[in-house]
Amino acid sequence: MTTGQEQESGSAGRLAAVRGAAAPQGFSARKIAALLDNPECGRRKLLDAAGVDKRVLADRVGYPSLFGQSPFAIARAAAFAEIVRRDGFAELIRLLRDTLNFSLAEAGVADLADPAIAAAATADGLSAQEARHRETVALLRDAALGTQPIAVFGSPVLALSIGGVPAYLEPDAIVHREGGRFTVVGIKAFPVIDGQAPAASLTAAVKQQAVYQIALRRNLADALGDDADSVADEVVLVCPENYSNRPIAVIHNAKQQADAIALLLDRLGGVDRLVADLPAAADFDLSDDGAGAARRSPGELATALESVGARYLPTCRANCDLAGFCRGEAERAGSPALLGPDVRDALPGIMSIDDALTLINDETDPSPDQAEAVAHLRRAARLRRESLSRTEGVA
Amino acid sequence: MSTLQAIARLQAYESGYAQPITTVRHAHIADRPMVFIPLQLAGQAAAPLAAMLGENRRRPQMLIVERPRIRRYRFKFAADLAAVLLPYFESFTEQSFGDEPPADAPQIVVPNQGAIAFTAHLGRSTRFRRIGVPNSRSAAADARAAAIAGVAPGVPVVGQWLTWLADRARLPGSSVLLAATDLLRAHWATGQSGYEDGQLAALHAWIDPPRGLTGAEAAHRTADPILFPPAGPGTDPGFDERELAPALEACEAAHGDPAAEQAARKALEDALRSQLEPVWDQVWGAVALLRGLEPAAHTVKRWEADRRAFAEFDTRVRAGGLPQPRRDSAVSSGRRLGQYERELDRFEAQRAYDDPLVMAEYRLAGEAFAGVVEEAEPDRLIGEGRSRKLRPLISVRTSDELWAEPGDRFHNAANPRQSATVVRIESVPGAAVLVTVELTGGMGRGRKAAKGTVPQPGDAVCFTSLALEGVPGAAFPEPHETPWTHGGPPAGHAPTEADAEEDWD
Fold first, then answer.
1. pTM (predicted TM-score)
2. What part of A 281-310 touches B (C-beta under 8 Å)?
C-alpha cells in the first residue's frame, strides 16, 4: 500500500501546482455524483481533482456561474436536519426503531462533529478532517468488533480516493445495528408525499448515499481486513412527511447505484495523464500576488482551460459552474453537442453542425463510414421538405 | 427525438429562427383560457408564495402570501385562489344541458411542467380540508373542525378541482391544463437543446423574437435572470437573496402595525410582480402563437372528451362527492394506466392522420408510404353471385423506403375507413417501387365505388400501417372483485379527520 500512497501524494503534489496558491476546494459526495453524470469530461475531472474553485474560475474567464441555492432552501434544510439531530439523534433513533424495526444498542451516539476531536488532533499535526476521519475509523472499528456499543455515528468523516486523489466525505450519519451491519443515513429536506418522493431528488440522494457506502466499505475493509458484508446494501433516507416538518424514514436499496459508481470510480483514473498532458505554462492559479493583482490573466486561464478537453452536454448547465464557458466553446466550434445528445446521436461521425448541413444538402459527399447515416438524414430532409411544401401549396 | 426533428433543429440553428415541426395545431386552444403562474417558496414542495392569473391578458390578478411560513396565510392563498377559479369553472357549467356536453370547458395554461406538479401539490394539500362547519358525527370533532382557523368553504373544493386538472393533464391529448413549454415544443424546433427548451423565456424567444433580433440573439439575452426571471414555480436564487428575503422579513417585522403592514405588503407585491410579469407575457404570447395555427381535425373530438369529463366531474363535486383518494387502488391504477396507454396510441395516430409532417416520421420509419397512383382498376369485383364484392386495385409509385410484404394491411390516410392490402411490390426505375394494393371499405354501399372514394391515376396518396382506432384494452375486474394478488378488494376510501387536519408547514 505504501507505493500507492506515495503515488497518491505525488499526483496530489502535481495537482496542487495546477491549483497554484489558492485554497483547495474539498471533494463532496455531491460533486462525485455530479462528476459521474458526465464521466468523460476530462476538464471537470482535472479541476475537481485539483480542488480548483470552478465558480471563481468561471467568473474570471467571463462566464459567471448562474448557480445558487436560495437562502430559503438552505434554511429549510438546516432546520429539518436540526429536528432529526437534536437531543442526540433522538428522532432518528425513534424512527429507525419504530418504523424500520432496527435493533439499536442503548445510548450509543457518537458525535464526530464535536469540535473537541478536531482540536485535540491539530496538536498531532493533522487537519480537522484528518483528525475526524481517524476518530471515525477508530469508533467504527470498535463498534464492528463489539468493544464499544455505538449505534449512531453523527457527521462521520470517511476517506475515498478519487482518481488517485484522496478526498474526505461527510455523510449525515451512519448507524450500526446490534450484532449486525452498518447503514448509511441521509437527511434530506425534500418531502415524501403519500409514500412517494420526487423521482429526481430521490435518485440524486440515493446516488450520493451510494458514494458514502463505497467509502464506508473501503474504510472498514482497510481497518478490519476484507469484510465487505458489514455494510448494508440499503440506505436510509430521512425526509419530511407530506407537507409537514415531521421526519419519516424510508429505506432504499442502493446496490445498483453503488456498483455502477464503484466501477466508474475505478475507471476514473487518468487524472495523472490529464496533468501530464497539460502544457508546462498552463495552470489554474486563482490567487493574487499579494498586491491585489491576479497572478493569471483571464486570457491565460481560458487558454489553460482550452488545453484540457471537455465534453459539453446541455445538462451540464444544471450541475457544473463552468458550463457557460464550455457552451461558449461549443458555440464557436459549431458543435452538434449544442443541440443536445439526441441531435448529436443522429449525426454519427459528423463533427460540426455546418458539416452536417452541407452533407444533408448534398453539397459535399459523405465519407464511407458516414454514408449510411447521411443517406438516412437526406431521406428525412427530403420528407420534411416535401411535407412542408405540400401544405404551403394548399394554403 | 426523431431524425426529422433533428433536421428541424439543424435548420433552426442555421437560420437563427425556430422551425415548424407540424403543419397544424394538435392542441385545443379555448376561447377563454385562464393563465395561471404559481410561485413557491424555495425548499418546500407546496408552500405558495404568489400567483398571477386571469382570463384577460391586460388585467392580471395577483395573489401573494406575505407570511408564507404560516399555515393560516397559506389557507388564505388557497381561499383567494378558489375565489378566482371557482367562478371561472361555474361559468361553464351554466351552459350545460342534459346529456349534451357543455358548449365549452375551462382551460388553464401554466408556464411549464413544474407548475403542473405544483398544481397537483396544491390540490393534494387542500382537498382533504374540512371547513369550520359543524356537520360531523361528534361534538368534539365539530369543535376541532371549527378550530381549523381560516379554512374558507372554497378551499377543499378548489383542491378537488386542482387535483382533477393535474390528473387530467397526464392524459395524452387532453387540453384542460396545458404547459406553455410543452405546447411550443410540440410545434416548433429551436436551434438550442431540448434541455434549454425547458426555459420558457428562451424557447419563446427562438419562436417569436422581438423586432430587430433573430431568435438565436433573443434567446441569448434570456440567460440573464434579472431581465428574464425563471418561469416558476421556483424563483431565482439571486432574487430570493437580494429582494425576496428582505421583503419577507419586512412583512414579519411589520406584523401588528396596519400602516407598516400595508407598506411592506406593497413592497413585496412589487418585487413579486417584477418576477411574474415577464412570464405572464410569455405565456400569453405562447397562447397567441398557438391560436395562430390551423387546428388539426381531431382536436375537436378530443376537446369534446374534455368537455364531457369536465361536466362529469362538476356533477360529482356538486353532489358533495368525496375528494380523490391519496393513492389509487390496484384496480383503479390499472384502469388508469390502461387508459393512458390507449389514449397515447390514439393521440399519436390522430396526429399522424391530421398532419403530413407527422406522417413523414412514419414514412421515414417504413410504417407509411406516400406516392402517386399510376394505375387503377376502380370497378374490380371478386367472388361469385351474392358474395361478389368490390375490391378495387391501385398501383402507387413511391420512393419511400417501405418495410412490407404481400398480405400486409395499410390504411388510407385520407380515408381512414379504407384499408389496403398489399398484393405485390415491384422495383421500378428511379430508386422507387410500385406498390399494388387491394382496397376494402370506405367506398359506400353499392357495387360501384362512391364518387371520389377510389384514388385515380395521378392522385397523390398516402397509406400507413398505423390504425386510427386501436385495439380496445383488456377488461379490468370490478373493484370488489380485485384478486388477492393485488391486495384483494380495496377498503372503502373515506377521508379521515387526520387528513383534514394534516400539517401544512
1. 0.90
2. none
